[in-house]
Each structure stands twice: as C-alpha cells, then as structure tokens.
Amino acid sequence: MKAFVKGFIVLIFLSFYFSVFISLSFADTTSFRSANIVTTSGSPAFDSISLANCSFTDGITCDKPLVSSYANLYFRDFGSYADFGIPSDATITKVKVKMTGKANVGLYVGLSSSITSWANCGFPSDIWTFWDLVGNTIKVKTFTTDVVYSGVVVQAVSGNCFQQYNFDNKKLTFRINYSSSQPWSANIDNLEIAFDYNPPTTPTPTPTPTPSPTPTPTSTPTPTPTPKTPLILIPGIGGSELKINEMKVWAEDTGHGGKFSYLYPKNENVWLNEDKMGEFGEDDYYDVLRMKTDGITSEANIGLTGNLVVRAYQGAIDFFISNGYELNKDFFVFPYDWRKDISGTKSFLDEEIQQIKTQTGSAKVDIVAHSMGGLVARSYISDAARALNVRKLFTLGTPHLGSVSSLKALRYGYCLAIEIGPFCLSLAPSEMKDIVQNMISDYELVPSKAYFNFYSGEDSSHPYPYRTESGSLNYNQIKNLLTGLSYNTLLFNPSEAFHNLDNSLSNTNGVDVTVIAGSGIPTLGQIIEKKTTSLLGIQYVQKDILNINGDKTVPLLSASLIDSDKNKSLLGDAEVFYTNQEHGELAASGSALNLVKNILEGRDQLPDDVLTEPYSFSGTQVSVHSPVNINVYDASDNHTGPTSNGDFETNIPGSTYDTLDDAKFIFLPDDGVYTIKFEATDQGSFDFKIRSYEDNVNTSTVLYNDIPLTVSTKAQTVLDTLSSQPPILQVDQDGNGTIDSNIEPTDENSTPTIAPTTAPTSSSTSTSTSMSTTTSTPTPIPISTLIAKSNDTLIKKEDDNAQTQTTDVKGASDVADKSSGKDKRYVLDIIALSGIVIVLLLSRIVSLPFLKKFWK
Q1: Bridge-partner residues for 543, per DSSP?
Q2: pLDDT of 526-558, one tens digit each?
Q3: Which of 203, 399, 551, 836 has its CA 20 to 30 A from that of 220?
C-alpha cells in the first residue's frame, strides 16, 4: 500500500510538471493578419473593383456574380515574421486560416509558395473546403492545420513553405477558387491567417566560477562556408503537372467505341488529377492530353502548373531540403511538357539554367535527372557549349537506349499505378494507350537501334524486345509490324533523329557524369505474340512476356550503358553504380539518393546497398492467358491480384502484378508455398504458365495448355516453389464447389492431360471433393523448357532436400490467449491513470493564462 501511495504521488508530480511547466516553453500563438495584396483571375473572375474590400472584416465584400465559371481569388503579403511576432529561428507548428463571407457552394482554399506558378504547400492542393460559409448570411470559419517538415501528409501543410524568405518576398499565396458549369456566387469579406509556433529553446544559464587570468590567444577567423553549387531536379515522363490553359468544352471520340464529353475549366490540373483517376470507367477524362498526328500540336491548350507530381517527386525534394538545400535558392525543379519531343526541351532547360546562374551567381549547376529526365539532360550536355554550364550530372534509371515498357504502352497501353499503401489507384491501360499514340516522347523511349546491340537475342537474358510465331523481330521488323497495324510510325523519324545521340553517349563533354541503375528486379524484356488455335478450332493471338534484369521498368543495360559479359560499353568517362530499387524508388528515397548526396559532398564512401556490380533476381512467375483472373495467396493469406473495384493489390511482399491485354502475370520473388486461384470472366479456354528464374535466367517453364472454361468455372492449385514436381491444377467446371477434374502440365503443342478426381491420392482424411479441403498428390513429370534456343543455356534447379517452412499459427494463438488476462488488467490500470491525467490537464487549462503571465 505504501508503494502504491508513493507511486501515486510521483505520478501526480510528473503529470503536473509535464502538463504545466514543460508546456510553457512550447507553442505560442500569433494574432490573425490580413493580406495586403488581393488579385483575381478566371472567366469571369471576381469583381476587380471590389477587391479592396477583401482585406478588412467590415461587412463590405468582394464579389463573384452568380454565373457559371472558374474563378480564383489570391491573397498574399500578410507581413513578415516580425509583423507576426515570430522569432526568426522559431518553428511554425500550425497554420490557422479564417475566412469571413458567404457563398452558395463550398469554396476551396489552397496554399502556394510561388506567385508566378502554383507550387502546392498542402496535400491535397485545395486543402481547405469552407462548407460552413454556404448560405445567405455572412459567417466565419477557421481551420487549424498541422505543419510538417518531412514527407507528404494528407491534410497537412509543408513547413518548407513557411520559410522566412517566402514571407519577406511576399511569395506565400492563399487561393480561393471554385469551378462549375452551374451558376455559383461568392461574397468574401476577409481571409486572415495566424500561426502557432515553438519559440527557440533558451537554456538556463549555469553560474561558472571566475577563471584565472590567462593570456588572450590570437583569434582564428571563422572560415566562410563554400556555397553549394545549385542543384536541379529533372523528372521523368509523367512527372510534371499539366493544366488546361483556357476553358475547354470537350466532346470527342474516346478511341474505343464511345464519346466523352466534359467541360474543362480554365487552369484545371489535369495531370495528375487523382480524383478522376479514382472514378470508375475508362478514364477518358485524360483524353484532353492527346497530341495531334504531327506529334507537335496538342489537341487542347495545355500548359505547366510549375509543379512536379507530388507522389512521384516530393520524396526527392524533401531529401535534398533535409540535407541543407533550400528550395528556389540553391535547389530547383524543372517541370516540362513530357509529351513532346525531348530535343525541343533542352532549350527550355537552358533558359532555366541561365536564370539560376544569374540568381545564384554560380558558374555551373549540378543536375539530378530521373528516368526520361536523364535523356533531357544528356541531350543538353551533348552540346559542348551548353555542357560548360554543368558540373555534375546524375542519371537515375534513365532508359538511354529505350525500354520495352514504352513499346508495350504504345501497343497495349500501360497501367500507370499510384501506390496508396499496398493498394493501387490505376489509370486504365486503354487510356494510357490513347494518350501516347501521337506522343513523340514515347517513340523516343521505345528501344532504339543501339538497344539491339546490347540485347541482341543470343539468350534469354538478352532477348529482342518483340517476338511472334515467326521469331524475334529486329528494329525495322518492329517498325513494319506497327505500320501494318496502323500506328503512327512517322513519329519514328524524330525519334531516330534524337537517338543519333546514342552514337556519342560516351562523350560527356567534360561533365562529371554518374549513372545509377536499378537492378535485381524482374523487368519486361520481351513481348511475345503467337497465333494459335484453341481446342474448339478458334484462332487467336496468345500474349506472353519474358522478364530480364532491371528496375521493373527500364532494362538494366539500357540504364547502365554497359554489358561487362560482352565487353560492350557506351559509358565513356562516366561511372556506373547499382542499387536494388524499383524505378520510382530511385528518385524517392534510399540508396540512390544517398549516393548522390555523398558524391555532391565529396565523399568516396558508397552508401549501404550501393554496388559496383548489378544485383540479380530469382523467383517464380505465374500467368494466365485468355478470359480468366488469377489471385495468389501466401502462407499468411496475403493477396496479390485484381480487386473487386477493378484495380489490383500486391500484398505479398516483393510481388508484382502486370497485364498484357487479356494476359495477367504475377511475380513471386521468395520461395514458399502459394495458393493460386482462378475465376473465369468469360467462356472459352485458358492457359496457365509457371516460369522459374535463377540469376536473371528463365531456367524452366511449366505449361497447362487450353483448359476449357465456362462462365462459372473456378480452379485452384498449390505451388511449392521448392518442389521439383509441378502442381496439379484442380478445376471446378460449373463453379458448384466440387472438383470435376485434375489437370497435369503439358508442353506448348499438346492437349492437357485430364484425370478424374478419384485418381489422385488425397492427403486429406476427408473423402470430400470440395476445393477447399482436397489436396492432390501430383505425379512426377518432366518440366518443359520453352524459351532458350539450346538446353545448354538452361540452369536446372536442384534442391531436392529443401523443406517447406510454415508459420505455426496455433502456437501464436496460444500465446495470445495466455496473455489476454494480463492485457485486461493493463487496460483497467490505463483507464484509471487516464482519468487522473485528464483532471490535471483541465486544471492546467484553467490556470495556464495566469501562470504564463506570472512566468513572464
């Protein structure tokens, strides 16, 4: 009992200390201030004559008439740090936005750190919605929003926007806007802002004894730190936001049997409008980004917002800012229209570099370029005179010689996926195909002639990018194929002109070039199309893919420009390093950016996970071809495959999901036991294929060919990647839960072997044939190897003694049961202690104003 009383007293003391005294050194709050500058834009905009009424809370408003339009109201110049009473070295923790007015719609408010272009400070871009002002009377609404200093946080504002520089230079801009084809109006009395901030911590001075007199040493002058060379970040394809420059009424054919109509308001951010991406349908909203057949002229008046796509590049921006760079002081981003000819972009890059040199006084700049941005930069430094402006260039995952993924985008579309945790919000492949058809830049990303010198078709690690039933196709044969399919192959002409650069890539014109390539990840290396005939005599084209080493998007040799095994290189004086990162991750965080940082700081040490030789990959790819879905579950019931809303998820660690028309592919990097389930989407037949990869080589392929389907058919199998025996495929033809047949593998040209369900010996003690309870013991058969030209090139897996590792779920459950009693007691203790703390906090709220006054 005494121990309890002592503990209780200590608890009271600590709670009171932390809730009162510690808090006194925390956030202070400023008064609200109004803007000194108010402007408007739109069609029609707010009444310009009444703009002066927006800066005082006096009941006199600036007005937007009741008409349909897109209109903006901009507020800036709220004062300096000193005007707000914020110490120069304080940390702003919250921003408060108070608006007084009325409207018949919920007005959106966003925040930018730029005047000439919109540079979002919050996520989403219109972070505040003032529904409370809807009505016929003037009302007041205040939002208090957290300020964060790293990463992208939903419903928070980036602290980088609240640098003292943006206050002093009147760059901090709040925007009220709305857009509708229906009439709307607004009457704004005032928009005011205030801040919570943490004042600088001042340590309590400690008395020190008077020292004995000593001779005064000669002072050594403090060296002036060397200013950083300005750094420019150049994004890849799709990495710059694009907007509508003027209101556009769109009513055009979709390109796939329909018509899409939409009113695009002026300045609407089209790319990347994630809200539209999340809607059901074919994503035809993005058709407005299409180019005309000349590849030069846009179908609509499209311009830049001045921002990079947040989800793709905010990580890189935060990385460099956290390592001492200041945005728009010595660190800059270069957005560009990624749909257009790369050759034309270098002149805009030169303008940006000249402006930065003038602003900073620096003679040169450094460049970090991701993906296609590396082609922009390489094109720039190929001009010897312009190369004098660049000190260092880093290319991250740049497809110098092209990528098969871009060829796939042209032929089938490409599922652009925005990751949200383990889920994906995706842009339909058909829509990506629509957009890229007349984009010169995509033709410039298709494998160039030089690509075929590195991937010359001699084995499964160096395949040509396209194969049909006639064999692998060279560069000219691919062009002829696409011409015959009515593609706009005239756009290969500017692409080939651009890729004349390939002949001089080894000449860096004195620029210190570092090439960083992602590796050890299965990457599309070959598209396979084969005409075949089904069991029912129906001819169709079967689609398949072959993986090679790379970063999941760009093949390794195209990114690295060197194949040591073939003694072939276009590196010249450039250095090359390798990471084990996917394409997007190279510019988001981790080892690639850490390497850039070390080199910029003059350090020779390689960061963790950066190698001078490429990583390799191994694993198993399972795929289905024709009208059926495939879903894979691991031993922990994690799922990879399509979801009910039409998107997909990749919850199995390290797995990937991809499609090629009606073919679906799932790659599983780790050995283990997987349950694979199939569900028909139409009647007909389907193929199931298992490819094994070891050290970048497709070592074996198992095929289950031409399995009949009804619209109700379901099937499943259990794949043990450590087993030398292929699995048996259990098929439930009518979907009633009972297995109708067990199917063993076949080769490419034979009919599947179908056995009755009573033939295999079940490992289950039950005699039921339910799909959920029966596991068949397969009969050993040879594995068919289909890809390599010679058996000599194959590497056979030999691991007969490997054992399957499973999770002891029951053991974990027992431990949880035993601990549940303790958990209940802990919960009761926490509830009691929480009550005490709440009382103390209430006491703090009442007494805090007096205490603060006394303390001061």
Answers
A1: 529
A2: 999 998 887 677 788 889 999 999 999 999 999
A3: 203
